[in-house]
Amino acid sequence: MGTRTTVDIFGRRFELRATGSDERLQELARYVDGRMRELAEVSPHVDTARLAVLAALNIADELFRERETEPGTRSERIQQRVEGLIARLDGVLLPSAEGSRR
Fold this sequence. Notes:
Number of helices: 3
Distance between the termini: 64 Å
Low-confidence stretches: none
Number of strands: 2
Strand content: 5-15%
Strand order of the largest sheet: 1-2
Radius of gyration: 23 Å
Structural class: alpha+beta
Largest sheet: 2 strands, antiparallel
Shape: elongated
Number of domains: 2
């Protein structure tokens, strides 16, 4: 079961049943709304149903591209950033710690 949530997408209200959090569904609705509005700016004479299909295809393309990226690439980038931040913190904190030992 889930909770009923009302979302606004491209000027229309939809009452949906959410299995997750209401906030997550609202975030997803805002994303879809934004994608539809971007497409409407480029193609102002396209009807709403076609905009929805184009937005869905664009979002699916994003998902597929993300899936096609080399496995581990994202986690490797995160790991490198974390290691860089740790090195910077060590550079700042270690001289202070050594000075307090004297």
